[in-house]
Write a sequence for this structure.
């Protein structure tokens, strides 16, 4: 049973062949650096705009309970000041970096994540909804290759744990 500050997050994810054309030259993105703290379900996140200005710092606990489907997770966010972030940043962690864009497809706004570093070439779309019925009613986006919500390899917690060889293998698999 989650504590009173936890929320349920309902989302779907899709694999894209590449960044959609409408976003290729866009400077309207957030750079997200996620630090998955070793040995914990905690994620430290720094968000900056395209000019490098910090837009948010937070510590997140995100997990999937045994009774939750692949579409649901339990999440608790703690918003941080610079000093708190700097202290937590010293803890051992694995890092995942991505650019996050927003894209409208019909009446739905998707977050498009373009990964950097060892996962360069991986592009995912995601969308959240307040209830499972509205989430499942969202049609397959026109720009997506396939849905990967039920494939745990495409969650941040799994992606950050990949070795360089596993990253290359995953990228090879999705391109072929």
């Amino acid at each position: 049973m989650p504590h009173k500050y936890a929320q349920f997050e309902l989302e779907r994810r899709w694999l894209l062949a590449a960044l959609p054309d409408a976003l290729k030259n866009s400077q309207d993105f957030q750079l997200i650096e996620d630090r998955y703290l070793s040995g914990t379900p905690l994620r430290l996140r720094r968000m900056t705009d395209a000019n490098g200005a910090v837009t948010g710092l937070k510590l997140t606990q995100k997990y999937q309970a045994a009774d939750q489907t692949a579409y649901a997770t339990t999440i608790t966010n703690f918003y941080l000041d610079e000093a708190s972030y700097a202290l937590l940043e010293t803890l051992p962690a694995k890092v995942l970096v991505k650019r996050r864009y927003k894209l409208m497809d019909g009446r739905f706004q998707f977050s498009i994540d373009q990964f950097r570093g060892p996962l360069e070439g991986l592009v995912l779309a995601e969308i959240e909804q307040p209830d499972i019925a509205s989430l499942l009613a969202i049609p397959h986006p026109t720009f997506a290759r396939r849905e990967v919500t039920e494939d745990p390899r495409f969650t941040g917690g799994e992606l950050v744990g990949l070795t360089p060889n596993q990253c290359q293998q995953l990228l090879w698999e999705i391109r072929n």
